[in-house]
Task: inverse folding
């Protein structure tokens, strides 16, 4: 059986790994596809040191982002409740719906912090009342905030 070859990926390769990953592949796959297309380079001691340094920098960056997300979560929970004004029809039914963009705009107005609307999860809101919105700030940091829909 042929020996496996260690390579460091220089680009993301589907079903194999991401940029900077150390992978073991068959020698033919390395020689005929990965190396000629500049998707990977041979793993030498110098390159392995660069990969380790890059991983450490990425880990530090992720820690900083998580710390910022925790600070943002504390600021959001300090606000408590957000009020969103909508036009109201019969039986306290609102015209349209409350969207994640409405919640993001209300957060921007209340705290001067920008939140990505794609990270906001809200229930279907069709009437006046108070609802819980979940805001994903980082992979494992989420904040819960009350959204109060009032008549305009």
Result:
């Amino acid at each position: 059986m042929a020996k496996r070859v260690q390579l460091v990926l220089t680009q993301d390769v589907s079903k194999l790994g991401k940029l900077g990953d150390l992978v073991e592949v068959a020698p033919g796959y390395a020689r005929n596809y990965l190396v000629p297309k500049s998707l990977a380079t041979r793993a030498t001691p110098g390159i392995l040191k660069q990969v380790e340094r890059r991983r450490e920098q990425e880990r530090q960056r992720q820690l900083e982002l998580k710390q910022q997300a925790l600070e943002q979560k504390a600021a959001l929970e300090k606000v408590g409740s957000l009020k969103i004004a909508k036009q109201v029809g019969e039986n306290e039914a609102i015209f349209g719906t409350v969207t994640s963009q409405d919640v993001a705009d209300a957060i921007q107005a209340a705290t001067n912090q920008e939140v990505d609307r794609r990270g906001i999860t809200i229930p279907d809101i069709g009437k006046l009342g108070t609802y819980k919105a979940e805001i994903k700030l980082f992979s494992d940091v989420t904040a819960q905030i009350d959204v109060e829909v009032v008549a305009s």
Residues 45-79 form the longest helix (35 residues).
